[in-house]
Prior knowledge:
Elements lengths: L25 H27 L7 E2 H5 L5 H5 L4 E10 L15 H4 L4 E5 L9 H7 L1 E4 L15 H5 L2 E6 L13 H5 L2 E8 L3
Parallel strand pairs: 1-2, 4-6
Antiparallel strand pairs: 2-3, 2-5, 3-4, 5-6
Amino acid sequence: xxxxxxxxxxxxxxxxxxxxxxxxxxxxxxxxxxxxxxxxxxxxxxxxxxxxxxxxxxxxxxxxxxxxxxxxxxxxxxxxxxxxxxxxxxxxxxxxxxxxxxxxxxxxxxxxxxxxxxxxxxxxxxxxxxxxxxxxxxxxxxxxxxxxxxxxxxxxxxxxxxxxxxxxxxxxxxxxxxxxxxxxxxxxxxxxxxxxxx
Length: 198
């Protein structure tokens, strides 16, 4: 019989000795630690990189601005925000606007023309009452940062939503007539606008 096969003289079968294994070498521990450390580094960069990345603020919808119960001036103050919607300009004779004391604030109280940002694309003729009820009123001290006047649904302003950058609660609102102060405060004073490509 071959050695290791069959019964031993004292009885029973031989049990092979366990192989000797010296365990991980120092180099193996170093390589394992290096791989684990590299993996933790990459994981940390991904987690903290995404959480701490500076992201451009997303424009707010007109409906979100109008849904604030206390009004946009109380909610956002004079902080600069972006609002996206459909621009409409309604020609109103300046003779119908209220008398303003001091020409410096006339731009905030006057509605000639009336500029409004609506949540949906307008169509047909729209009255001043409907525009003020359904949209965000826009104004600017120089009247320049606005698209060219077009009829609703026509021209560049009627073909795409526009993003207007500005602020509510302008300091000149306090100089508006007493019955228009709230409307002046809740007017988006525009500094610039851009088109929204989708």
